[in-house]
Amino acid sequence: MKIAIASGKGGTGKTTLSSNLASYLAEHREVVLTDMDVEEPNSGLFIQADLKHEEDKFKMVPQWVEDKCTLCGICQKVCNFHAVIQLGTMIMVLPELCHGCYACSELCPESALPMIPKKMGKLIEFRSDNLHFIESRLDIGEEQAVPLIRQTRNYIDKTFPDEVIKIYDAPPGTSCPVIEVTKDADFVILITEPTPFGFHDLKLAVETMRKLDKSFGVVINRDGIGNNDVMDYSEAEKIPLLAKIPNDRIIAEFYSKGQLIYKEVPAFRHELDGIIAYIKTLKDLKQ
Amino acid sequence: MKEIVVISGKGGTGKTSLTASFAYLGGEDVIVADCDVDAADMHLLLEPDFEEKEDFYSGELAYIKQDQCIRCGKCAKVCRYDAILTIHNVFTVDSLSCEGCGYCARICPTNAIINRKPIAGTWYISNIKTGSIMVHAKLGIGADNSGKLVAKVKAEAKEIAEDEFKDYVIVDGSPGIGCPVVSSLSGASFVVIVTEPSVSGLHDLKRVYELIQKFKIKAGCLINKSDINPKLTEEIETFLRIENIEHIANLPYDEDFTKAMTNGQTIVEYSNGHLKEMIDKSWNKIKQLVTNN
Ligand code: SF4
Ligand code: SF4
Ligand code: SF4
Ligand code: SF4
């Protein structure tokens, strides 16, 4: 079972929810928590676990072999991303722009552009009892999150059997990185704040999930601030409201120190229980 | 004309509320660019009138014309993104997976594949309640190229500022360190980083600053909710000193941030007290830093 935790806008409590939910679930069963926000991975700050495994992640980019090149210009023409350009008698590859489609490499008549691996980031795996934690981190200067997310998903599918619960902490927004994370999730939790910003971004996230044909529910964080728009909307749209996490300065303070909140705040744990109960009904439906 | 970019690395630090407040204080002198195109929220505070609107086309999307396809399977073989779906020997393109590399169309023996330009988003030019103009956008769902839309919004804002002899463009930047942020930062005169004293706030501040250094742009930092964790606030202040980042101000944890937002107002309109004064001072300091730069 794969559960993605996403939100239209950042800072609504995605990481708080995913790290707490995963740790809480791990008290009784095996869980894999993955920080898929590869641009700003943060979950690890809340998880204490031992390093198990580390590997560099590579993307494939072409490398120019000058001796073989006849300067025919095909490579520049076929690259839709302007990542290969011809400058006088030189072919230049701009790895940050390359999407690794292989077109230039395979269409080069002289085989003068072999694909070579280039490091784009790192995958780190930690473990503490039942909780596996995986973090992927994009190198600074790398602009594309999607290839690293894709490889991270593959790693998890390969490493952990289906019955293990997998929780993905998704990047914020509704563009390609979020799609890449939520694509194969069985259930998506959208977390939002009951404010105009939260409401506006929730609507975009809901639109996205509907387009992807996902089953999803909403969690309201910092309940009590703002207004009732999110509640009314969820009700009108028949979106299950999974939990309402109260607005409490204490929670913000525990969070700021990197502490797990469910251990300290019973009301928070109670909300997690509600989410877990809901997820269990889903599983029953599927079987 | 100076371009001030406000970013935060991590979300939820109050970046947009503060940017809108600066825009409000700057009034007619400031053209606003909302470059957080993935979650554009500034319009909820600044009452734009959406006067001009234009679709933004970007990238490509492969499409297979079934009547020309001879089902040879070559396209599926070359596609590195598993975007060609084969169901009962019928080949179609999964538009959410297609990267628009165009490779399949180049090798299709019957030219059955065409590339379409999808609408990646819409951008707007609006008059706003500050008496000035805002350029903003809405990214299409699952759209690629948010970096290009960011670049478009910024370029438009800049052009308007130059045409109308405005002093400042203030940019609400995108989160993360990927292409949208890179587009937000390029060409900036000064970066304001909004952070908060949490372990993730500090972590993201360091990461985003590493990126800023690559652009060699001068930066200043606002620590919001600074009283939530005084120890970490101190740690952030030390980091700022070491890295020679201007420390603009510490702001308190204040429910007025959300109350103002719920009212559809900037903080400086909603709050009259101490908070307004501090934001006022911050804006003056930013202007000073930008001018001295
Ligand atoms: S396609 Fe190959 S031979 Fe032609 S210019 Fe490019 S690298 Fe050189
Ligand atoms: S692999 Fe594709 S994206 Fe990369 S340089 Fe070659 S043609 Fe361009
Ligand atoms: S390469 Fe062209 S002809 Fe062959 S299966 Fe693909 S679309 Fe059809
Ligand atoms: S354009 Fe590229 S990504 Fe899209 S279907 Fe064709 S080969 Fe695949």
Could you explain the architecture of this structure?
The mean pLDDT of chain A is 90. In chain A, a hairpin with a 2-residue loop joins strand 4 and strand 5. Chain A has two domains: 2-50 and 121-286, P-loop containing nucleotide triphosphate hydrolases (Rossmann fold); 59-118, 2-Layer Sandwich (Alpha-Beta Plaits), CATH 3.30.70.20. In chain A, the strands form two sheets. Chain A has a nine-stranded mixed sheet, sandwiched between helices. With 287 residues, chain A is of the alpha/beta class. Chain A has helices spanning 14-25, 74-78, 103-107, 146-159, 176-182, 196-211, 229-236, 249-256, 266-286, and strands at 2-6, 31-35, 50-62, 84-87, 90-93, 115-128, 131-138, 165-169, 187-192, 216-223, 241-246. The longest helix of chain A is centred in the C-terminal third of the chain and has 21 residues, at 266-286. Chain B is an alpha/beta fold and 293 residues long. Chain B folds into two domains: 2-57 and 121-292, Rossmann fold (3-Layer(aba) Sandwich), CATH 3.40.50.300; 61-116, Alpha-Beta Plaits, CATH 3.30.70.20. Helix content of chain B is 38%, strand content 24%. Chain B is built from eleven helices and 13 strands. Chain B has helices at residues 15-26, 43-46, 74-78, 103-107, 146-163, 179-185, 199-215, 230-243, 256-262, 267-270, 274-292, and strands at residues 2-7, 30-34, 52-57, 61-64, 84-87, 90-93, 113-116, 119-127, 133-139, 168-172, 190-195, 219-223, 246-250. In chain B, the strands form three sheets. In chain B, strands 3-8-9-2-10-1-11-12-13 form a nine-stranded mixed sheet, with helices on both faces. In chain B, helix 5 (146-163) runs parallel beside helix 6. The longest helix of chain B has 19 residues, at 274-292. Chain B is elongated. At the A-B interface, helix 3, helix 5, helix 6 and helix 8 of A face helix 4, helix 7 and helix 9 of B. Bound molecules: iron/sulfur cluster (SF4) (4 copies). One iron/sulfur cluster (SF4) binds next to helix 2 of chain A.
